[in-house]
User: Fold this.
Amino acid sequence: MSGNPAISRRGMDIQESPIRKLAPLAAAAKKRGIRVHHLNIGQPDIPTPIEFWDAVESNMKGVLAYGPSNGIPELREAICSYYARSGIHVASSQVMITTGGSEAVLFALMATCDPGDEVICFEPFYTNYNGFATIAGVKLIPVTSRVENGFHLPPSEEITSGISERTRAILICNPNNPTGTIFTDDELAELADIAMERNLFLLADEVYRDFAFDGREHSSILEFPAIADRAVVMDSISKRFSSCGARLGNVITRNEELMSVFMKFGQARLCPPTLSQYGATEMYKLLTDDYYNTMVAKYQRRRDILMEELHGEEGIFFLKPEGAFYATMRLPVDDSDDFAAWMLREFSVDGWTTMVAPAAGFYATPGMGMDEIRIAYVLEDEKMRQALDILKKGIRKYVSINQ
Ligand SMILES: Cc1ncc(COP(=O)(O)O)c(C=O)c1O
Assistant:
């Protein structure tokens, strides 16, 4: 026999992350001496709270052992108290700690679907859902939401027309990455009704639940008692506590049978990172309203800078983001992949350029999002202004040479 053994179909099919695929071009730009503003990735720049580091340090002794598969009880209790602040009451047995929100999404798909089953998902959606779906053998059925109404839900018939006998769940991200949309209570109630009528699970990725602007209150699907048995929330400390590298998230469900399945998945991978869990517990326990309010105010200010710099600019269209720290906008370009690459290869102002994420990878329908980009507003105010100014100038120049 010659040649190599064949690689799996799922291995060949899984997408390259559109957030990271331009990284080699950014590296090449940096090699040429160009500095890059990263608006392409949701990596918060706020220091991880000292409570995390202190707790990690004080546990750095003896054996770094495995912990329980569903996470240490102190952290699960602390998460229950965090939810109770918003009037959401869950027992610690209904919370399972995962290795990031990423594992929470993967577990939710794998526990509710068999290979070949389908999940309704509103595009544009968090691009890694494509990757998780490929790993789980699940088919995402996209229902398109549009920039014109701020990416809120399309009419009910469009949602239900995607449902087939293979559909097992509806997956939402609320507040939404990549659009910054927060679904209203009416929208959530509509989805809850559909889930009940069509006997589906409702899976909600709520990792940005603290990031709600202009005095909005984020509502969780855990607040809809009628779907208590079909609701699964995926959460994470990555954004809330600016601690992406801790690799901790959690799933919450009141469905005991489903939780026992999560537990078996958890046992197969033994446990989530032990040391990070000590750190996360202290952050959940010690951080006060001040922490959350200051953080949200910071991102809201950046959102406002985004509005000042780009909203109303000729050819650029988006509505004011309501939460998270992203905006998806239409640009006067035909191929935002090419535009984003061009910014890194050819455009700079005073030695700086700006990196953005082309939006096509956030859609499942081929051809959608080709004229859109996603921006993550995760830089300090002045840097944000500079990054957006460079982006604006880049758009003008790109349009002028491609006309
Ligand atoms: C919507 C959404 N869900 C899940 C995740 C994964 O988070 P984690 O870092 O906890 O794996 C992210 C990360 O950017 C995200 O934006």
Notes: The two ends are 54 Å apart (CA to CA). The chain has 13 helices and twelve strands.
